[in-house]
């Protein structure tokens, strides 16, 4: 009898060196995140569909593998760790000590068109930092102070998770222990500027693109009014950098399509400008600390990540981001190998008023790109029966 | 070095014109040559010669940093690509073609022959009549001419092929243009150069 070795589209068996390389990378990343106080959460791969119905965008619904169980329940294979973790934790937060630092690892299964580099089963590892944005009880009597404290703690959480993301990508040490210097580059991290540029200019340096979800909402709404084009169409044009369409809107959106940021942050309005100035400063600081990464701020890349009602449905499968958002490219593929951001609105939709920040990495995508310290030397793909790639998070 | 994918066929000339307008000298490139890869050190680019239908996949997967391909192919294949410019040259149109100028009556079911089944399905979804999509890979005009199908959806430039085969253009559905497409990661890596090309294309009136 002749036995077929074929596997369904988009899945792979890792044998020999490929399996060893993934476990090595997983081990290194586990040590990194555990070293920063993150505890493991092990989640099931099978879940009910019903609790997520109101949270699903058309894109995330389209990627689900779902079926009716023998008892009539609608089930789905895990396509994303974050909503599952949020659903399980939201009702229990009152009894838990915040902030919570959790990490997970395992497969997610997503339907995707049969495209090169597209995988339907992805092995992910990710972290979630929950509950850092809650104001202290003593601030409750002064709303202005409480709001400022909330902004500051949320920004600190965003910074901590982004630093850990960069460390995971580059094999670095990650965020400083609490109590260490957090404003500006410390002496131990000082990097010669020329060396930093040289390292990041290497053709295969990973690229991390930073943005702010919802940052363009006002600009898009104003442009829609001025041009008569639907907001969703304008946002798509910005995200695809269609200059001829965006030129009709003119001004700030055209600059963002070309350069990633406006000529002056104030052009986005006061609240967005303050956030953008913070992000640009953070990029400059982290570029010094992580010289092997190309760090850029590009608001156009995330134009569809929005809280605008006309855009939420267009935002794609991971539409829950509402603050800092980032993604990493490694190697040539256009599919990011990692992504993350702030997503407190997901918890608020589940009835829990806390902030949350997290990221996930596609381990096989990282190995294929050969970008991490643990991945070196370049991994031989012997024994792999399907290609790698696929989207993170 | 930026790797640029060039299309074979009708979009090649507009693509070469656009690259020249973007400031590339193209010294060493031989139109009609058999080489599939041509390094142009003076321009710091490598050209790939690809079929239209394969080109978006090469760019999306990052094998090519950017390329020029018809919007007809992009509409049909989809994919996550940046589309920063539509070229002014080489434009044509999607059209419904038949033996007479009449569209099917409401409620009718016809056969519609095309190389673009996904585009055709989207088109028919908004009509009062229905169609069975017949996928063909070439010479689509023959289908209505020889009654394999009542209608065809295909590209029309001058209309001469239609006239030669006793067919008429019933309805122009959409304009089709060669488009510059760019890989997302490549745009981040080569932003300055690609923006410079785009500025030059716009200054030369090569995009619309």
Task: Kindly describe this structure.
The complex is a heterodimer of chains A (393) and B (208). Chain A is α+β, with helices and mostly antiparallel strands and 393 residues long. Chain A has helices spanning 17-35, 58-62, 81-89, 143-170, 193-201, 217-227, 231-239, 243-249, 251-259, 270-289, 309-312, 344-349, 363-369, and strands at 39-40, 46-48, 66-68, 74-77, 100-109, 121-130, 207-212, 294-297, 324-329, 338-342, 356-362. Helix content of chain A is 36%, strand content 15%. The longest helix of chain A has 28 residues, at 143-170. In chain B, 29% of the residues lie in helices and 31% in strands. Chain B has helices at 12-21, 55-60, 71-77, 117-125, 142-145, 160-164, 184-189, 191-203; strands at 2-7, 37-40, 45-50, 66-70, 82-86, 92-98, 109-114, 130-135, 151-156, 168-176, 178-182. The A-B interface holds A 113, 115-117, 203, 207, 209, 240-244, 257-260, 294, 296, 298, 301, 329, 331-334 and B 57, 60-63, 78-86, 182-189, 191, 195, 198, 202, 207-208.
């Amino acid at each position: 009898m002749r036995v077929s070795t074929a596997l369904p589209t988009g899945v792979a068996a890792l044998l020999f060196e490929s399996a060893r390389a993934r476990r090595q990378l997983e081990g290194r990343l586990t040590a990194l995140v555990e070293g920063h106080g993150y505890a493991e959460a092990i989640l099931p791969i099978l879940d009910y569909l019903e609790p997520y119905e109101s949270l699903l965008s058309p894109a995330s619904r389209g990627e689900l593998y779902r079926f009716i169980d023998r008892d009539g329940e609608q089930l789905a294979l895990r396509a994303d760790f974050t909503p599952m973790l949020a659903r399980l934790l939201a009702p229990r937060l009152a009894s838990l000590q915040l902030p919570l630092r959790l990490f997970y690892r395992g497969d997610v299964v997503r339907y995707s068109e049969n495209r090169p580099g597209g995988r339907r089963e992805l092995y992910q590892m990710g972290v979630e930092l929950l509950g850092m944005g809650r104001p202290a009880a003593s601030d409750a009597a002064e709303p202005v102070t409480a709001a400022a404290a909330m902004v500051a703690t949320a920004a600190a959480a965003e910074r901590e998770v982004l630093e850990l993301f960069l460390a995971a990508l580059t094999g670095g040490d990650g965020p400083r222990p609490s109590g260490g210097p957090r404003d500006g580059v410390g002496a131990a991290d000082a990097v010669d500027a020329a060396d930093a540029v040289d390292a990041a200019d290497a053709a295969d340096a990973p690229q991390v693109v930073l943005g702010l979800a919802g940052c363009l909402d006002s600009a898009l709404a104003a442009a829609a009014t001025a041009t008569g084009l639907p907001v969703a169409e304008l946002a798509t044009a910005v995200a695809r950098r269609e200059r001829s369409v965006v030129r009709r809107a003119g001004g700030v959106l055209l600059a963002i399509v070309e350069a990633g940021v406006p000529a002056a942050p104030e052009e986005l309005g006061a609240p967005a400008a303050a956030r953008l100035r913070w992000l640009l400063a953070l990029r400059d600081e982290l570029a010094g600390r992580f010289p092997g990464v190309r760090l850029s701020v590009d608001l156009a890349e995330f134009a569809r990540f929005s809280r605008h009602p006309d855009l939420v449905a267009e935002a794609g499968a991971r539409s829950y981001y509402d603050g800092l958002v980032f993604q990493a490219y490694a190697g040539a593929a256009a599919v990011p190998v990692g992504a993350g951001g702030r997503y407190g609105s997901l918890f608020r939709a589940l009835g829990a008023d806390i902030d949350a920040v997290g990221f996930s990495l596609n381990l096989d995508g990282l190995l294929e790109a050969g970008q991490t310290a643990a991945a070196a030397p370049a991994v031989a793909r012997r024994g792999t029966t399907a290609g790698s790639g696929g989207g993170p998070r | 070095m930026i790797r640029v994918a060039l299309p074979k066929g009708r979009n090649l000339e507009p693509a070469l014109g656009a690259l020249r307008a973007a400031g590339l000298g193209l010294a060493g490139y031989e139109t009609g040559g058999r080489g599939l890869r041509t390094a142009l050190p003076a321009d710091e680019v490598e050209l790939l010669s690809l079929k239209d239908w394969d080109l978006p996949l090469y760019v999306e997967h990052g094998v090519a940093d950017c390329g020029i391909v018809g919007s007809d192919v992009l509409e049909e294949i989809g994919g996550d690509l940046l589309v920063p410019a539509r070229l002014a040259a080489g434009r044509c149109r999607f059209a419904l073609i038949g033996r007479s100028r009449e569209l099917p009556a409401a409620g009718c079911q016809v056969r519609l022959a095309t190389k673009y089944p996904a585009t055709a399905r989207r088109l028919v979804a908004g009509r009062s009549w229905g169609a069975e999509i017949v996928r063909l890979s070439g010479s689509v005009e023959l289908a209505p001419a020889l009654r394999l199908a009542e209608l065809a959806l295909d590209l029309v430039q001058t209309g001469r092929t239609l006239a030669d085969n006793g067919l008429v253009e019933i309805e122009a559905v959409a304009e089709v243009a060669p488009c510059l497409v760019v890989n997302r990661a490549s745009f981040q890596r080569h932003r300055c150069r690609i923006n410079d090309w785009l500025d030059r294309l716009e200054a030369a009136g090569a995009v619309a």
